[in-house]
């Protein structure tokens, strides 16, 4: 039998699995730790260096190459397969999580780094050296491409982090078991013990796959203070809803988005200053805000004829259908015939939109990565400016001016650099602390002095008070956030890290 194609298939599987484990570790680290730029950079560096260490260690293996390869493959299966649940549980229970995280990444990298040199030495008698190196590297890079495509498109949204690691651990174990037949002429002694271990490992990993949701819940229960009552992994984020004595809370990628107990303070502050400054807007644009709570506030204004909501994630805009308490909280705002929902990247959508809006509410998650950071750049705000009518008003959520003062003023200065006149303001939301916003128009304006009747938080006395910033929230020198520098993400990572 010609074993060469099967051996190259091994190379492809090894490369794919190795990169998937690295991506899992990076995604999980950014999920539980934040600071995604630093975490991915460190994990990539540690993994690549570990590959080199593994390749160097392979030189000390003189005999029993085939048996050693199978042993290493089973080691990758157990460590890589259990990596996601292990890291989830470690973060919840251990104070030295970083050591565990980087240790797991390094160990997986060393084992994967051992595999390819061993395979190349096993295959050296089948091909000449030039052909061997070119084919192995080709399949290695193809495996990396396969992993990078599968991971965001299929694996995480369809399987989730925990199940993905277990599935690929099972795949590694299958390769190890298969190797006991593929390399049988090269293995000295009996192989029954190897096959039994591979079978036991496969059974454990298969059981883990069946119980993956339970493992995920077990891990996440230790990450959140309250009981988890809803979870959903989408192509874009991890949605978790918890329930406590005061109500329910929505988390995206581990970051609190709102608590039902006090969200009204946030959403009234986000919506009504802009609606009042726009003087009876008819056409309103909402960017983000898939929970529908900003919609609820906008629809209280009788002048509104249409609302266009643009949110990337359809699972967020449909969350009210799947979680009825949210529909009750947002007053079934998505059922209002004036509301139109567009599931698209807001920046791409703004580049093509031909409509003009009288008011815009920008309610994106905080800029904790470059994908979100682009939505806070001069380029984005200029695109937004071009779809506004002359008297339009805009309100942007801008993170906390108390906990992330540089980030807050960076957003303010960036909006100004895009051609807006800006009035910064803040409010206190118990779940978040002091939270900041920006009210902007294309021409100079006075801050609104009145609030619509019947609100829970804002009234004619509270509205002007929003725009009085105490000294510790005042302006500081910052750079403007542009697409080619993304300085805001660096500000945000460094400032919020102090409070983790």
List the helices and strands and how they pair.
Elements: H1 4-33, H2 36-57, H3 65-81, H4 83-93, H5 97-123, H6 129-182, H7 192-210, H8 212-221, E1 227-233, E2 238-244, E3 247-252, E4 255-259, H9 263-277, E5 283-288, H10 293-298, E6 306-310, H11 314-317, H12 319-322, H13 324-329, E7 339-342, H14 346-352, E8 357-363, H15 370-373, H16 378-385, E9 388-397, H17 405-417, E10 421-429, E11 433-441, H18 462-465, H19 487-497
Largest sheet: 7 strands, mixed
Helix fraction by DSSP (H/I, runs of at least 4): 40-55%
The beta-strand count equals: 11
- Strands of the biggest beta sheet: in what spatial order? 7-6-5-8-9-11-10
Cα gyration radius (Å): 27 Å
Number of domains as seen in the coordinates: 3
> What is the name of the CATH architecture of the largest domain?
3-Layer(aba) Sandwich
End-to-end distance: 58 Å
Please identify which CATH superfamily of the largest domain we are dealing with.
Vaccinia Virus protein VP39
- Return the CATH topology of the largest domain: Rossmann fold
Share of β-strand residues: 15-25%
**Helical segment tally?**
19
Can you describe this structure?
The protein is an alpha/beta fold and 500 residues long. It folds into three domains: 4-221, Up-down Bundle (Growth Hormone, Chain: A); 227-257, no CATH class; 263-497, 3-Layer(aba) Sandwich (Rossmann fold), CATH 3.40.50. It contains 19 helices and eleven strands. It has a seven-stranded mixed β-sheet with strand order 7-6-5-8-9-11-10, sandwiched between helices. It has a four-stranded antiparallel β-sheet with strand order 1-2-3-4. The radius of gyration is 27 Å and the shape is elongated. The model has no long low-confidence stretch (mean pLDDT 89).
């Amino acid at each position: 039998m010609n074993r060469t194609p099967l051996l190259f298939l091994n190379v492809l599987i090894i490369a794919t699995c190795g990169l998937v484990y690295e991506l899992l570790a990076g995604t999980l680290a950014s999920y539980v730790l934040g600071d995604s730029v630093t975490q991915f950079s460190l994990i990539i560096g540690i993994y690549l260096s570990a590959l080199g260490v593994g390749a160097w260690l392979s030189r000390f293996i003189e005999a029993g190459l085939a048996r050693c390869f199978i042993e290493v493959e089973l080691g990758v299966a157990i460590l890589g397969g259990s990596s996601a649940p292990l890291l989830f549980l470690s973060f919840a229970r251990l104070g030295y999580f970083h050591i565990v995280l980087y240790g797991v990444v390094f160990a997986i990298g060393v084992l994967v780094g051992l595999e390819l040199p061993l395979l190349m030495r096993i295959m050296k008698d089948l091909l000449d050296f030039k052909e061997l190196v070119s084919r192995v590297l080709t399949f290695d890079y193809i495996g990396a491409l396969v992993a990078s495509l599968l991971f965001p498109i299929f694996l995480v949204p369809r399987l989730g982090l925990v199940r993905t690691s277990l599935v690929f651990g099972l795949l590694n174990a299958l390769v190890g078991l298969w190797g006991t037949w593929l390399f049988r002429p090269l293995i000295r002694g009996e192989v029954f013990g190897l096959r039994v271990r591979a079978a036991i490992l496969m059974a454990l990993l298969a059981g883990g796959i069946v119980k993956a949701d339970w493992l995920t819940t077990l891990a996440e229960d230790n990450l959140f203070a309250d009981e988890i009552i809803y979870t959903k992994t989408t192509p874009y984020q991890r949605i978790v809803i918890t329930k406590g004595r005061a109500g329910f809370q929505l988390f995206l990628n581990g970051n609190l988005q709102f608590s039902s107990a006090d969200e009204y303070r946030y959403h009234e502050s986000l919506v009504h200053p802009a609606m009042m400054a726009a003087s009876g807007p008819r056409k309103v644009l909402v960017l983000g805000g898939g929970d529908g709570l900003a919609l609820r506030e906008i629809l209280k204004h009788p002048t509104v004829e249409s609302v266009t909501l643009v949110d990337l994630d359809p699972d967020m805009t449909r969350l009210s259908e799947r979680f009825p308490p949210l529909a009750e909280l947002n007053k079934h705002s998505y059922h209002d015939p004036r509301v139109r929902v567009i599931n698209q990247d807001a920046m791409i959508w703004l580049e093509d939109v031909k409509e003009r809006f009288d008011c815009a509410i920008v309610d994106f998650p905080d800029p904790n990565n470059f994908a979100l950071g682009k939505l806070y750049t001069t380029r984005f705000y200029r695109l937004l400016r071009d779809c506004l009518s002359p008297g339009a008003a805009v309100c942007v959520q801008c993170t906390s001016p108390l906990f992330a003062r540089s980030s807050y003023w960076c957003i303010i200065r960036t909006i100004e650099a895009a051609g807006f006149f800006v009035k910064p303001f803040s409010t206190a939301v118990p779940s978040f602390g002091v939270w900041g916003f920006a009210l902007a128009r294309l021409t100079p304006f006075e801050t609104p002095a009145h609030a619509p009747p019947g609100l829970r938080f804002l009234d004619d006395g509270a509205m002007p008070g929003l725009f009085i910033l105490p000294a510790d929230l005042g302006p500081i020198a910052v750079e403007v956030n542009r697409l080619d520098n993304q300085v805001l993400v660096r500000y945000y990572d460094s400032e919020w890290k102090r409070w983790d």
